[in-house]
Amino acid sequence: MRSYQMQKREQIDHFLSRLKEIRDQLTSIGATLNQELIVRTALNTVSEEWKTFVQSILSRANLPDWEELWSTLRQEETRRLSKMGNSNKGVQIKKEEEEDSALASAR
Predict the structure, then answer these.
(1) For the chain, how many structural domains are there in total?
(2) Would you tell me which of 1, 19, 31, 54 could form a disulfide with 26, CB atoms 3.0–4.6 Å apart?
């Protein structure tokens, strides 16, 4: 579990599922893992693009439990994807406007 690391551009659900699988395997062989350990492991092994968001979680008075962490990270991923989608739409609209303008001036 110490060498576990989130891959760049890996989706949160996949990352957390892999970590949960490791936790379940360790538990099945008798290891005792408290919830705080798994939460801290997840927060300490996210990819670089998540570091600022993780700092905001770590600055809270209390760490979230495993389910709350999963939900919080999933919401942030959704927000980021939505923001990227809107950003890409803006680029696409601008590109289409430029093409329309070029076609209009060519006539």
Answers:
(1) 1
(2) 31
